Queue: 2 jobs
Job 1
Amino acid sequence: MRQQHDTSTHPAPRAAFTAADAYTLRTALDALGGVRDLDTLDVACGHGATAAFLADGGARRTVGVDSCPDRVRRARERHGRATAGAAGTTSVEYVVADAAAMPQLGPFDLATAVYLFSHAPDRDSLHAMFRGIRANLRPGGRLLSLVRNPGAYPHVDWSPYGMRILDRVPEGDAPLLRAQFLTEPPVHFEYREWAHADFAEAAVDAGFSTVGWQPSRTPPADAHRDEAYWTAYRAWPVSTLMTCTA
């Protein structure tokens, strides 16, 4: 099962929902004062773009975790080398591990997770993911996670923004959605349609003291995507930013 899109820069413009995700996360981190001199963890790091972004922002230490050895190998090749960030030369460490069985890698001041929780196959795994992240955070540490919004299919067409939901199968603890990224050729993937209340319940059960939500933010309009385009996207975006405090 493919777990998430790669948010790295490509020669072609990134999908609109991916651009909105990156802008949402960046502005949230800016509002918190950035990551300079923080110990940071990126769970479900994929090919390493978010982890590299944290390291380049001046994080004191950055660790990326992913369950797929091939994704970790690619991340090490692309972003594992030393980079000149805001706090000097730094590098990203990468670890192969299942987010539902997280090893003790911290403590960290900040954790990020892009679409991780939508891939929990059942409720026990969902709660285990939150517990593993909480156990790696210092008291007062924060989790910022982009989570998929439920309820779109079949009412909303996300194809103008780079993805399409093909089917919804009621089964298990949360419905299974079959979808595709509208690349060339399209890339098929699956995820679970958890409710935001399920995420909040798991976070509180894991010991997070606060749980909050921030709407998706969109980049400034330009010649390719005008304000009307982004206004339509904000009416029913792919994701919401979940914020938790340890």
Job 2
Amino acid sequence: MNNSTKIIVIGSLLGTLGIAGLAKAISTNQPQLPIAIMPQHHSSTQMTINKDVEVNENREKLDAANDADTEVNDDKVPTSLGQVGEYGESVYDMAKANDWTKATANLNLLGNAAKSLHTKINVQNKTELAQLDSKIATLTKAVTAKNRISAMRDANQVTLIAVNIIKEFEPKVPVEVTLLDYYGRELEIWSATGNTSHLKTTASEIRRTWNAVRPSILARGETIQLQKFDALFASVEAAKSSEDYARLATPILDEVDNLEKVFKY
């Protein structure tokens, strides 16, 4: 070992062991020197890594909290109210698929969300909350009985009541867009039962709702969406049989999903 290397090693040992420890280390065999140095170096490095990980985790938690706050501030609709509409639609989808296990699970979530509305929001018309509770009770009976059409109809009515409450909060997505989703499901329900009277009424409501929201879409320059919906609704008005309406229900529901994105971003 040359003099320069000795000076470096002695300096490192002196900082680590002190004068007494250095004397003891020098009296031992040379191969032990790295052993005295490396554990101290590893421990210091590990402490630095742990500290960095802790700082990064705290920063991620803070960023997540800030993101959540921003998301809440951007959305005027209370979380529990939004969940009522979402879970109502999920129950509808599961009943339609005859998946009663998932329908029941979503029904339980719907009930919990509805209960929280009584304490977390201040709606102008308390009657709507009473209607919601009553409709969920009816829906529960339909799901328990595994009555597909009744469950679909009641679940869709839950989403309609949610829309009527949501409009009080002036959401970013116009309530007319959400209503188009509701009417698309109505087409599925009544075409399955062959009720052409209800189908014609639903077609008229679709046209009225579309006329109300169309100017907002035009103002955003969404000409492609306008053309698609104009064509779809013209087809709905021209429909004659329940089979015609059934074929149009899914395209309408798909396009409503695209239309929601126009107002969310």
